[in-house]
UniProtKB/TrEMBL annotation:
InterPro entries: AKR2_Oxidoreductase, NAD(P)_OxRdtase_dom_sf, NADP_OxRdtase_dom. SUPFAM superfamilies: NAD(P)-linked oxidoreductase. Residues 17-325 form the NADP-dependent oxidoreductase domain. This is Aldo/keto reductase.
Amino acid sequence: MDTTRTLGRSGIEVSALGFGCWAIGGEWQGPEGQPFGWGKVDDEESVRAVRRALDLGVTFFDTSDNYGTGHSERVLGRALGKRRADVVVATKWGYLFDERTRTADGSDASPAHLRRALTASLRRLDTDHVDLYQFHIGDAEPEQAALLRDTCEDLVREGLIRAYAWSTDDPARAAVFAEGPHCAAVQHALNVLQDAPEMLRLCEEAGLASINRSPLAMGLLAGKRRAHQPPESGDIRSRPPAWLQGFGDGSGADPEWLARVEALRSLLTSEGRTLAQGALAWLWARSPATVPIPGFRSVAQAEENAGAMAKGALTGGQLAEIDRLLGR
Ligand SMILES: NC(=O)c1ccc[n+]([C@@H]2O[C@H](COP(=O)([O-])OP(=O)(O)OC[C@H]3O[C@@H](n4cnc5c(N)ncnc54)[C@H](OP(=O)(O)O)[C@@H]3O)[C@@H](O)[C@H]2O)c1
């Protein structure tokens, strides 16, 4: 398998695997105190993990201004240091937060906020441009998003961003952004348990990259999550919001999801892959547009996930067998 892919029609080249930087933002909370992070993290381990990923050929990193209320961007900026020029950095805007109390604080879909948020992200990332700037409010009004798309075109002309995308699971909304010439991608949920055929069709037809969030089903496809084993209290999976699937009421992984993982285990772990590597291999086989961005919190996870590239994509026959096993 070619271990590089392009971000759609932008022509920006990235490693076929990106790294998702939500977890390394550490703990933060929603307005009612519900956890929005993935529990405690060790910043020094996060920095080592990012640098290990760079050494293993990963050149694409996805973060957001609100992950850890700015902390993820700071840790990523510090870890990249002088190697910033060698990588493609994607971040997001749209949600408001208080860095001092590490609390989320609503959203703002105005063009004025877009410019303010970009200035703040550039400072935290310690860079003069963002390669891929992504609108984070997945269910925002399309008419409002069209204004933001046009502002993003201005930002491309000003040299502050190279390309932009919408992080949304709705193909109709993604199509609104796709009308902008420098829209390069859509970020959306996709993993072997949650297919998204309509969104992939749009990406392939419109020349957009399909950046895959939750490629490991928020850890379920890494194999160490159990039923009746609650995640730690600062972890979003312990009090899952409505959109977070596979963790039931927070008392542990959903048995029905775990059963589907078990049904696929032997196929995904064939040819010397770990379960997580098999889940990533499915994504590369699913479409030439996909770029999975698994989360990570340690050097060991960075090595295992980056190692998936050398093992390549599943075959068409294996994809068909997976659909059969899942009754799709
Ligand atoms: N709306 C949006 O735009 C949006 C929403 C969600 C995510 N994202 C982006 O997508 C990225 C990834 O998606 P995700 O965070 O939902 O989850 P994911 O990639 O499906 O799962 C990541 C989690 O799985 C576990 N893991 C990863 N590699 C592992 C390995 N090799 N072995 C064992 N466990 C492993 C880690 O958690 P544990 O160690 O705690 O199990 C890790 O945090 C995020 O970081 C973020 O950049 C964007």
